[in-house]
Structure formats: structure tokens, C-alpha cells
Amino acid sequence: MALLALLPAMAFAASVSAYAGAITAVNVVLIFGSIYLLVSPTETEHGGEDVDHAA
User: Fold this and answer.
1) What pLDDT is recorded for position 38?
2) How far apart are CA 29 and CA 3, in angstroms?
3) How many C-beta atoms surround the C-beta of residue 53 within 10 A?
4) Environment class of residue 29 by beta-carbon count within 10 Å: exposed (0-12), middle (13-18) or buried (19+)?
5) What is the rounded distance in angstroms from the CA atom of residue 3 to the CA atom of residue 7?
6) C-alpha torsion sign, points 44, 50, 51, 53
7) What is the distance of C-alpha 13 from the center of its chain?
8) Cα separation, 30 vs 21, whole angstroms
9) pTM of the prediction?
């Protein structure tokens, strides 16, 4: 969904400035990647297993 922001970036590159459009497209990809890593599940130290430390 976030990659749909590349469409206006490409339109901007085609109409105004190719250099500025390329920078905008790179920023969109970086933001998408950052958000993807933020919300993606990660593994814990114990291989994803829940460990009860109360025992």
C-alpha cells in the first residue's frame, strides 16, 4: 500500500525534475522499508519461545 506513493513520485519526476523525482522515490522506499521493519515480527533470544522466568 505504501508503495503506491511511488506513482506520484514518478509523475513528479516526469513533469518537474528527474533528479528530484528520483530522490523522492528513494525516500518513499526508505520509509516503506523502515515501517515494514518496525511492524514485522522478530525472533527473541530464545528462538521465539515464551519462557516462564517465575519458576
Assistant:
1) 92
2) 7
3) 4
4) middle
5) 8
6) positive
7) 21
8) 14
9) 0.65
Mapped to the 3 state alphabet, what secondary structure does the chain carry? Answer: CHHHHHHHHHHHHHHCCHHHHHHHHHHHHHHHHHHHHHHCCCCCCCCCCCCCCCC
Q: Which amino acid is at 50?
A: D
> For residue 27, what is its C-alpha cell?
525516500
Say if residues 10 and 21 touch (Cβ distance below 8 Å).
yes
Instruction: Please report, in tens digits, the pLDDT of each residue of the chain (55 residues total).
Output: 777 888 888 888 889 888 988 898 899 999 999 999 999 988 766 655 655 666 5
Hey, what's the cell of 41?
Answer: 515480527
Q: Are 28 and 6 in contact (CB under 8 A)?
A: yes
